[in-house]
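Trying the structure run again after the queue cleared.
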Amino acid sequence: MRIVSLLPSTTEIVVALGMQDHLVGRSHECDYPEQVTSLPACTQPKFEPDGSSYEIDQRVKALLQEGLSVYRVNQEQLAALEPDLIITQDHCKVCAASVDEVKEAVHNQLGNHVEVLSVSPTDLSGVVSSIRTIAEAIGAEEAAQKLTDQMKTELQQIQEAVIELRRPNVLAIEWMKPLMSAGNWMPQLIQLAGGKPLAAETGEHSPQINWDDIRRRNPDIITIMPCGYTLDQTLAEIPMLTDRPGWDRLRAVQNKQIYLLDGHQYFNRPGPRLVDSTRILAEVLHPSIFRKNGGSQGWLNLWRHQFHQQIK
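Done. Tokens:
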């Protein structure tokens, strides 16, 4: 079987199911595990991806207002790869090539024998369903059962470790301008890691929030994981938050509980590594229990980072 995966999370799922050798193409954003970057990319953004979160937001909105998709499918590349299966999603217009765009490419360049499989998880149960759906399409049902059982076991271990602990109020910020809190699976991950999510609901799209509402809620902990951003990219834009009026008076700021999380590699990808994302959250929320040997990669405490930068 020849598989093209047009979403980072579905690429990770195919690999986790032991079918990496069947991958022949990817999206321009698929970069884990590193070996997949050698595969030809079949998509590219229609907007300039560099710039601030506000600039990116405006470019994306301009495309969507014109009724256009955000990503371009390279139809010639797709045809040259001769896939049997193309995997994409229909949950978020700015996460991957649209189903309609993929189907158009298949219609123009490939035959009806090519299957287009779309998944759209909005919570952890949806992620598990996506894994099973993909596994059924590629003949890896047994591997899917082992993978989902392992995910369930590891998440249960985290959940059991925090049952008796105090649960801090946690605001997860998914975009800085405009301000958006992290919805979909993020409130669920926060709960599993021993926190109380604020300003978002499990299974619902990430909502816009206003600064006055954040000040009113005054969270115990703020986590920041802009969609598609690395830690360095988030650091570069952190003044969008820290320069706001009343930032220094927030409880989380005064208690040095501001954390930057790697959204690009962990929290924005609805795949097997959401288990790692939950573990990172547990380290942030309950360090005495989970933070061992310095903790995991994928996060940093903003106050500690700024302090270390000052003494260099």
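The two ends are 53 Å apart (CA to CA). Worth checking whether this holds up in the mutant runs.
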